[in-house]
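Submission sheet (multi-component)
Chains listed below:
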Amino acid sequence: MNDLFLRACRRQRVERTPVWMMRQAGRYLPEYRAIRAKADFMTMVKTPELAAEVTIQPVDIIGVDAAIIFSDILVVPDAMGMPLEMVESRGPVFRAPIRSRSDVDALNVADPERALRYVMEAIGVTKRSLAGRVPLIGFAGSPWTLATYMIEGSGSKEFKHVARMMLDEPEVLDLLLDKLATGVRLFLEAQIAAGADAVQIFDTWGGFLTPDHYKRFSLDYIFKIVSNLHRDGAPVIIFSKGANHSLIDIAGVGADVVSVDWTADLAEVRNRIGEKVAIQGNLNPSYLYASPEQIRREVRSILRKFGNGSGHIFNLGHGIFPDVPVEHARALIRAVKEESPAFHG
Amino acid sequence: MNDLFLRACRRQRVERTPVWMMRQAGRYLPEYRAIRAKADFMTMVKTPELAAEVTIQPVDIIGVDAAIIFSDILVVPDAMGMPLEMVESRGPVFRAPIRSRSDVDALNVADPERALRYVMEAIGVTKRSLAGRVPLIGFAGSPWTLATYMIEGSGSKEFKHVARMMLDEPEVLDLLLDKLATGVRLFLEAQIAAGADAVQIFDTWGGFLTPDHYKRFSLDYIFKIVSNLHRDGAPVIIFSKGANHSLIDIAGVGADVVSVDWTADLAEVRNRIGEKVAIQGNLNPSYLYASPEQIRREVRSILRKFGNGSGHIFNLGHGIFPDVPVEHARALIRAVKEESPAFHG
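Outcome: structure written.
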């Protein structure tokens, strides 16, 4: 088994830097689009064979060092009783958003073994197909990030209802976050039990918050998850986008890896938290539009920033865009594989 | 004249913290919507009497301590030969974006006295109407931020063409940024000559860049503007959104004020750069959806973060949203006026 990814998560010696890409099972791959043409997004997510197939595609096609189960962070609220719809051109929509204490009370703490069984089945199918070629990552949204979608009812720029609830009725928000923290923890444990070799917590909207509110409403609940998680040796990765102001606190919640976007300087990040955690990142996903030569240059620059030794997992600072040429994605993976051995001498 | 704003920009003693809001002349005001119902956005921008009227509205209606001329950062490319269209639901559009060296060569360095005369006239009308009640701020986009719109042709999430040009043909991008730096400098000088008491450079998309590329493609050109600017005593404010990673460098380009969004902790910011520059910010604009009581609490928390003494201009970390209740905007201004004297004892 190629266990570079797992070894790097644990800051153990590796021969080269492992690499995978957020949203690597996605529309930039013609093979993905072929399946997507026949099934809608949620059907793919809820059909273990389809989910497994697209999960493995980037391993076969571009050669990443880890697979991540094809799913969506919003399956958790869906399982808690908020039916998720994917609306063309609008994205995810919850028709009945959470606006009051009684809305929160009406939510089930998801029993992942039942309501999210399809994810665990997809993990099982994927693991059998992968047959140990690369590790498989499970994931979930952070309580805060899930709450923003559940309260707004869809993606948002203004965060109107979230801001109102946070400041005017923090006790209701806390109740919601607490339920989510339990649901997410159980879900991550079920994924690990089903075969996930590592798990990542996506906190996409951490950057909406001031540093104080980030700690209070996002990181504290991530801590609650991580510190109670029966992880059975599986590394935990935290990605709080836009929260570089709190790196030291993030590194302190007990996760193995902290993922950072491109606004962080990896040398500085390693200097601040590299003794405590491995670091994942941090190529700007837009840079994949440039030529393969320039992609290689950027890869070298990031590898140099991190410097010699283990504890780095190469990744993007956000998901790959759907119209990036496959050849460019492949060029990225190739460049990391060819350029990184020099940093593990 | 209420010169609290100008004194705070210069870190001189003030009796209370001055306050204004980015996008304060905007749709959240019924009086603005009444004018907007009769004239489209660009007509308002290009008609000095209309621009002056909406510029002054927030001074009269909610009591801000500074006015900012009603305009748009994209008037500069418009004046350079790229006609700007405001398309409903899509925002600003340039039909013929910049994609090559010959596109850049074809741009005029705007002669602001001619091509942007309407801005200077609006400043003149506004100054006469204000009659010294509060200072008037002029502004421009940063070369980098203007370039992103000119290259993409509209607002963008992927920054596809920008990333390509930046990495594959940096010499073309430099040529464009250089022209823009000259045009922006001349434009800011013309605004100051027409009566602007201070100027702000909006670098809305600084956060798209890695720290190294931010310095190379955004901050260096801001430095070029600031260091060559005949400012006649007018303070210069820099707002590079998402570039908190480079605060010390930003504070070093020679501006008087650095504006920060809500992801910065003002105590830390003051600690790092407060000896060199005044600091503007940093309420999360979404927090204005909360109740007036909670808005006041957030105001107090920000004032406490900055601490005692001058050098703080209260503002939002981004423009006010169109559906914020006027009463909440007024509550913000009132809270700053009532809570801040305690910090200037």
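Remark: Chain A touches chain B through 36 residues (CB under 8 Å).
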